[in-house]
């Protein structure tokens, strides 16, 4: 987590650090019609990249991208417990577990 005033180079430094460590950078593009379901789909994609594709990923997210307070709740849950409740349907969890077990 990088904290600083706007224009201080936080994003540039994060991108540099990710590049230095050969990490993939995952950014969400917030549009006018961006909804919570879009947020959850993006987070599912991010978690699949980390788990199924075994990529080392930097999640780059700015305070200006917080459209709904639930975004912060989800990030908090992910940081504290490692999961977001009800993010994946039970069928999706089974499919992901099967893919991981096949390795």
Structure, explained:
It is built from 4 helices and 2 strands; from the N terminus they run αβαβαα. It is mainly α. It has a single domain (10-101), classed as P-loop containing nucleotide triphosphate hydrolases (Rossmann fold), CATH 3.40.50.300. The protein has helices at 10-20, 36-51, 69-81, 90-101, and strands spanning 24-27, 57-60. The chain is globular. The chain has a two-stranded parallel ribbon. Residues 1-101 form the Dynein heavy chain AAA module D4 domain. This is Dynein heavy chain AAA module D4 domain-containing protein. It comes from Favella ehrenbergii. GO terms for molecular function: dynein intermediate chain binding; dynein light intermediate chain binding. Pfam families: AAA_8.
């Amino acid at each position: 987590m990088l904290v600083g005033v706007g224009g201080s180079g936080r994003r540039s430094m994060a991108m540099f650090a990710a590049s230095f460590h050969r990490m993939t950078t995952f950014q969400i593009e917030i549009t006018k019609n961006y909804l919570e379901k879009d947020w959850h789909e993006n987070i599912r994609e991010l978690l699949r990249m980390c788990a199924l594709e075994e990529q080392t990923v930097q999640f780059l997210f700015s305070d200006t991208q917080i459209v709904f307070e639930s975004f912060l709740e989800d990030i908090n849950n992910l940081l504290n417990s490692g999961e977001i409740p009800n993010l994946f349907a039970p069928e999706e969890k089974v499919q992901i577990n099967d893919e991981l077990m096949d390795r």
